[in-house]
Structure formats: structure tokens, C-alpha cells
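Lab meeting, item 3. Inverse folding demo.
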């Protein structure tokens, strides 16, 4: 079997911010332009800290991409073959990634730079980030704020219940860049 040709597509540096999070929860990543939206979904799950337990979609200039479901026929285009170079052709272009339609976690991804690939770098790569991902099923941004309030006050009536639900302590400022990049190696 012949060796795989190296991917020479440009590298997109994206800043991904969880919309409505204050202070902002964000990640800065580099992915190759040949990355499909389906693969970007997997990357975003890892770098943000989600568990891939819910539906998702991308919105680019009013066009919806995801996993089409014929029983709903919502006009969603398949994400499987759509590459970043096709939907984000230049710096400052943006897309919305929505995860978990019930909690409606909307992320904005903005192209900060388009760079030549470096042969010594393995992509995708997370360069930086701030703050922990909210727990799954916490109820969106508003539910997360209530969760943080309860977790931050041992006298809060929901403190014990929330602590048990999340499995112990929760540090909203935690972000482990090394662990994220280690997990990206398995994609």
C-alpha cells in the first residue's frame, strides 16, 4: 500500500467562543483547511470538553449543515464532505456550531489566520483556551449560571444536589491544554 500523501492544505486558526458565556469560555485551534465539518464537530467536542451526547449543526451564512434526517427534512445539508476551505474561504469569516438543541450551546468560530502547514506539526492542535466546559444537560447558559451560583455557595439550597449531580467539585476556571491536545491525537 503506498504511503499517504501529506495534507498540504492551508491551516486555519480558529477562535471558538461559547456564545453568551461570561466570562467567555473559548478555545484557539488550528485545523487543516481540508477538514470536513463532520470532523470539525469531533474536534470541537474534544477541545470544548463536550461528550458528543446530543445533536449538532453548523450554520454558515444562513446555510445549515449537519446530519440530514429524512424524516424531518429540515433542509440540512450533509456535513460529511464540506471542507473548511469551502465555507470559510478567508480571514474573519465565521460560522456557528450549535450543540445540544435542548440546551442550545451556540459556539462562534472565527477564522483568525490562514497559514501554510508546518511539516513538524500534527493537526488538529489546540493553542490556548480559557475556562471549563459547562456540564452536559445543565440547561444552557442560564442553567449554567444557576449551577455556578449553587456550586459557589455551600449554603445554597441546591449546593449538595448539584455537587452530587456533577460528581464532586467543579472548577469553572479549569482548562488543561495538554490533556486536550493528547485527546486530539486519537481523532
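The presenter then showed the designed sequence:
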Amino acid at each position: 500500500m503506498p504511503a499517504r500523501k501529506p495534507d498540504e492544505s492551508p491551516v486555519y486558526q480558529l477562535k471558538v467562543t461559547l456564545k453568551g458565556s461570561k466570562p467567555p469560555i473559548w478555545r484557539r485551534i488550528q485545523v487543516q483547511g481540508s477538514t470536513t465539518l463532520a470532523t470539525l464537530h469531533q474536534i470541537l467536542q474534544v477541545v470544548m470538553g463536550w461528550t458528543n451526547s446530543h445533536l449538532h449543526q453548523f450554520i454558515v451564512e444562513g446555510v445549515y449543515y449537519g446530519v440530514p434526517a429524512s424524516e424531518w427534512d429540515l433542509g440540512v445539508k450533509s456535513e460529511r464532505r464540506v471542507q473548511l476551505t469551502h465555507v470559510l474561504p478567508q480571514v474573519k469569516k465565521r460560522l456557528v456550531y450549535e450543540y445540544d438543541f435542548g440546551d442550545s450551546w451556540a459556539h462562534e468560530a472565527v477564522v483568525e489566520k490562514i497559514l501554510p502547514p508546518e511539516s513538524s506539526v500534527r493537526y488538529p492542535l489546540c493553542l490556548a483556551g480559557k475556562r471549563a466546559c459547562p456540564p452536559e444537560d445543565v440547561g444552557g447558559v442560564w442553567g449554567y449560571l444557576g449551577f455556578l451560583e449553587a456550586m459557589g455557595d455551600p449554603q445554597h439550597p441546591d449546593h449538595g444536589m448539584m455537587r452530587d449531580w456533577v460528581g464532586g467539585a467543579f472548577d469553572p476556571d479549569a482548562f488543561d491544554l495538554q490533556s486536550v491536545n493528547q485527546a486530539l491525537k486519537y481523532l
